[in-house]
Amino acid sequence: MFAAASLAGWVAAAAVAIWWLGEVALARGSGSSTALSTSALQALVMVQLFSIVTFGPWLGATTGPRSARLTLLCSLALPWPLVALVWSATPLPGWTMVQIEAALAVLALLLPWAGAAVRMRAPQPVAATLVSLASVIAVCALWSVRDVLLERLS
């Protein structure tokens, strides 16, 4: 399971890295590389978030919470060098990026327990899959209304 999570982390990081480096090279003359870097950073965070939300409860139910937490934290840590590189080209403050990555790490630590709790209550693996699906739908809904939520909070 760890190998699959590692491979998923590397593939996601490589895809964003190739896209970002190509776009920055093309946009270097026009001065819009900060906007591209911000988009790439947003894509990286979104891929990390969706992988944690998707696989967290399922891994917690199938492999146990301890193994699932280790797998999720390792898959979260794999693209950190790329996240740091892309972040350095954005106007985003460093403390904000640390808070985002810390929130992702907290999710990676908590969601496997949710999957394990579902597994204890309903021993069928379908229940853990449904919890994963529901958490992905919830994150998608929050992501789609994030601008409205940010406006209300500020």
Short description:
The chain has helices at 2-27, 33-63, 65-77, 80-87, 94-121, 125-144, 146-153.
Overview features:
single chain; about 150 residues; mainly alpha; 7 helices; globular
Dominant shape: globular
Mean pLDDT metric: 77
**Assembly category:** single chain
Number of helices: 7
Low-confidence stretches: none
Helix content: over 70%
How many domains?
1
Order of helices and strands: HHHHHHH
DSSP, total strands: 0
Gyration radius, in Å? 17 Å
Task: Note the gap between the termini.
Answer: 41 Å
State which percent range the strand residues make up.
under 5%
- SS content category: mainly alpha
What composes the largest sheet? none
Detailed description of the structure:
It is a single chain. With 154 residues, the chain is an all-alpha fold. The chain has one domain. The chain contains seven helices and no strands. Helix 1 packs antiparallel against helix 2. The relative contact order is 0.15. The mean pLDDT is 77.
Q: What topology does this entry show?
A:
Elements: H1 2-27, H2 33-63, H3 65-77, H4 80-87, H5 94-121, H6 125-144, H7 146-153
Helix pairs in contact: 1-2, 1-3, 2-3, 2-5, 2-6, 3-5, 5-6
